[in-house]
Amino acid sequence: MTTPLTINTDQGRDGAPSLVAVGEIDLSNVDTFARAVSAAIADHGGETVTLDLSAVDYIDSGGINVLFNCADHIRLIVKPLLIPVLTISGLTELAPVEAAPRPATD
Amino acid sequence: MSRLTPAGGYQDDVALLLYRQPAPLQLDFPAETSQLAGTRTALRGWLNRAGVSPEKTLDVLIAAGEAVANSIEHGHRDRPGTVTLFANALVDRVHLTVVDSGDWKVPQPDKDVSRGRGVLLMRALMHDVTIDRDAAGTTVNMYTRID
């Protein structure tokens, strides 16, 4: 079984292009994630795409590689828990990374 | 500690044993990407029972995930095999060992950016990461401190 990951490409509330991912990103589904991110960027010709990963609980180095490869075209919203690993990897120096608000029940 | 001392003091030598639940975890599974999520769920549950914080749990899950992903990608690309993940909670640390029967090469960060980043992450998130290869396979050992 592939690790569960749902991806929706949409427009954010501000009308800017956005991709919302829910689940976990690992070696089993990273190609799907990479294709979805590439498609979202290609569809919006150079515009910055917001990747909303606030419901992603896990991302490995393969997923982080995808983010590195398109760092110039994205801004990220992630769980506060994921910020340290993105910082260690150096991604936060290349792309804007914002912490998602913590859910009230978290 | 002083609150444990009886009012009248001790009558004899005292030994204090610190014991941490749960018992060590051992997972044996086929070297396939389909195993990643289930393995992670099992390890997450075990770390939770060991009282490891959510922040530290994610560090351990990612480091373990990188070791397992390397075993799957490099160790068993051409033939099926198994991976064993072993986790042990001591008083102040969690030890992790990932063993496979493959022969993955340690990726060089400048030559193999993709998996090289995984090894860098492992080394950044855990202490004393060692990767030993011999004819039988590859063994990754690492630990992290816990409160």
Description:
The complex is a heterodimer of chains A (106) and B (147). Chain A is of the alpha/beta class and 106 residues long. Chain A has three helices and five strands, in the order ββαβαβαβ. In chain A, 28% of the residues lie in helices and 33% in strands. Chain A has a five-stranded mixed beta sheet with strand order 1-2-3-4-5, with helices on one face. In chain A, strand 3, helix 2 and strand 4 form a beta-alpha-beta unit. In chain A, helix 1 runs parallel beside helix 2. The longest helix of chain A is centred in the middle third of the chain and has 14 residues. Chain B has three helices and five strands, in the order βααββαββ. The radius of gyration of chain B is 19 Å and the shape is elongated. At the A-B interface, helix 2 and helix 3 of A face helix 1, helix 2 and helix 3 of B.
Put the structure in a nutshell.
The complex is a heterodimer of chains A (106) and B (147). With 106 residues, chain A is an alpha/beta fold. Chain A is built from 3 helices and 5 strands, in the order ββαβαβαβ.
Please name the defining characteristics of this protein:
heterodimer, A: 106 residues, alpha/beta, 5-stranded mixed β-sheet, 5 strands, B: 147 residues, alpha+beta, 5-stranded antiparallel β-sheet, 3 helices, 33% helix
